[in-house]
Amino acid sequence: MRMTVTEVEYVARLARLELTPAEKELFAGQMGAILGYVEKLKELDTDGIMPTFHAVPMENSFREDVAFSSIGLEKALANAPDRAGSFFAVPKVIE
Amino acid sequence: MSIFDMTIHELHAALKGKHISSLEATSAMLARIEAVEPHVGSFIMVTAEQALAAAKEADLLIAQGKCDLLTGIPLALKDIFLTEGIRTTCGSRILHNFIPPYNATSWAKLRDQGAVLLGKLNQDEFAMGSSNESSAYGTTRNPWDTTYIPGGSSGGSAAAVAARQALATLGTDTGGSIRQPASHCGCVGLKPTYGRVSRYGVIAYASSLDQVGPLTRDVADCAAMLGGIAGHDPKDSTSVDTPVPDYYATLSQGVKGLRIGLPKEYFIDGLDPDVQKTMDAAIDTYRRLGAEFVDISLPHTDYAVATYYLIATAEASSNLARYDGVRFGHRAEAGGLLEMYTKSRSEGFGSEVKRRIMLGTYALSSGYYDAYYVKAQKVRTLIMNDFSAAFANVDVMLTPVAPTPAFKIGEKIDDPLQMYLSDIFTIPVNLAGTCAMSIPAGFSAVGLPIGLQLIGKPFDEETILRAGFAFEQATAWHTRKATI
Fold first, then answer.
1. What confidence score (pLDDT) does residue B94 get?
2. Does residue A57 have a pLDDT over 80?
3. How far apart are CA B426 and CA B77, in angstroms?
4. Helices A21-38 and A5-14, axial angle in degrees (round to 10)
5. Chain A contact for B336 (CB, 8 A cutoff)
6. B458 close to B437: Cβ distance less than 8 angstroms
7. Rounded Cα distance, B66 and B60, in Å
8. Which residues in chain B are closer than 8 Å to A50, comparing Cβ atoms?
9. What are phi and psi of B356, to 5 degrees?
10. Chain B contact probe: residue of A5, A19, A38 with most B CBs at under 10 A
């Protein structure tokens, strides 16, 4: 099994990744091999089986509705590549 | 005995008896790190100054009579744990400049007990890998033979313990990332039950599978470390609010009458002969100690790797969407917002991470969601059912950790599927959400360590620790040291 380069490009766009032509070729082969391998799950009849999202069954986990302090503005912005006052700054959104 | 050869319980006794100070112990560890690090490459960053300061603080605590098991003990962390004010990269270029504003709960708990942080350990990028070769900060080498991989993704965590650069370390295990490197480096590594340890402040790979655990020289140290990090955390809603037992107290209760299951799917033809021999010898040891063996079956084992690589990559594609260059991490030069996202991610992520994001994105994409992602979650149910059915008849299971000892650096790097298949015996435990531990059980003909895996019932870490301790008392594998 092989993925086409067009399929690789489509998935890369969804994942916000830009691949080099060499990467596209490589991933087409490798992802094809992996997807070929996972085909084996089709051997199993899973009709009527509930999917597992989580290993430990849990209900919503609530805490008391009590305010507590957070890390604060300066700490939260300390890693920002760019900031404008108390905001994260980004390049223009509409091109 | 050199300080760096000590276990936690040995150093604890020496600290408590005031024979050694934490400052002396920490200095000895830093010297050891400096001496062997050029050969091993376990660390991404050594935090010498902070370590010495923390050691002095620990000595003050000890002088005041507060000497808990982990007070003053020099440890190191996989670089996936957030450490306030100390750069945390997760082995990725995209986080090359990230200074966390808070601590991971597991580290905060150790630090509150007076533990000393020696540094941040190398790992596969975003914990995606089985060999430590996907790190953006160089490949860690196996201390037993530096031409071999240490295993992954917590490869630095295992190599640092084996090379005696830290008394113990923390790692994370999503598909075997604590147990497989522990096996390959000859140390003890435990993956607790999902929910036993808080994941708060641990950089997420696959959130329904990730779990934090210790890597140590012996089982007693493993019990000490697990006791130090386990428990409910209000900041992680998936951490479970069940009492943490005193793991130390029940260690020496022995295995007489313990029912050990041998899942037939784990003892396949094609198992490496050295691994097979090691398992046979371990079974003999447990028989001598009075354990009973039961043949069991986990019929869906063969589907676990396929299930894992759909669920884990799907969760990863979602978790790693946060690396977009907006709030932290690498930001590429770009004219517009969309271009900035795409460029930042493409420059920041390595090949294996891109491949897994792509796979996960594909599995979740319109038209394939049911066929891949939902199907895998249904098979996960079948795998979990296998474990609950088998555990109705046995107390623990004994299996190999990996089908072979460590492989050579470079051997599988070009064939991701072969790399994935090396996790075949560890992945099912993550899917089932239960606990398992690797302990040293022998060596291959060329002198590489081989571990055995003890799998326990959910939240029954006590029994695998007890079984591991009994094995350790009856054998001397854990006392062998890598000559580095």
1. 98
2. no
3. 22
4. 90
5. yes
6. no
7. 9
8. 378, 381
9. -75, -35
10. A38
Mean pLDDT value across residues B192-201: 98
pLDDT tier for residue A95 given thresholds of 50, 70 and 90: low
Report the pLDDT averaged over residues A39-67. 90
Mean pLDDT of chain B: 97
Residues of B in contact with A67 (CB under 8 A): none
ipTM of the complex, rounded to two decimals: 0.95
Query: Has B346 been annotated as catalytic?
Result: no
CB count in 10 Å sphere of residue A4 = 11
C-alpha to C-alpha distance for B210 and B316, rounded to whole angstroms: 11
Residue among B323, B317, B363, B358 at smallest CA distance from B342: B323
Residue pLDDT, tens place only, B103-119: 999 999 999 999 999 99
In whole angstroms, what is the distance from residue B416 CA to residue B318 CA?
Answer: 21
Q: Is B235 tagged catalytic?
A: no
- Which of B177, B183, B239, B317 is catalytic? The answer is B177
Amino acid at B409: I
Identify whether B153 is a catalytic site residue. yes
Q: List the single residue in A with minimal CA-CA distance to B103.
A: A71
Exposure letters B262-280 (e unless 16+ CB within 10 A, then b): bbebbbeeebeebbbebbe
Report how far residue B318's alpha carbon sits from residue A10's, in angstroms, rounded to the nearest whole number: 17
Burial degree of B199 (CB within 10 A; 0-12, 13-18, 19+): buried
- Least confident residue range of A52-61, B163-172, B283-292, B400-409: A52-61
User: Residue A58's pLDDT is what?
Assistant: 78
Q: What is the mean pLDDT of residues B439-462?
A: 98
Cβ-nearest to B331 among A16, A56, A81: A81
| Catalytic residue of the set B78, B109, B120, B191 | B78
For range B467-471, the mean pLDDT: 98
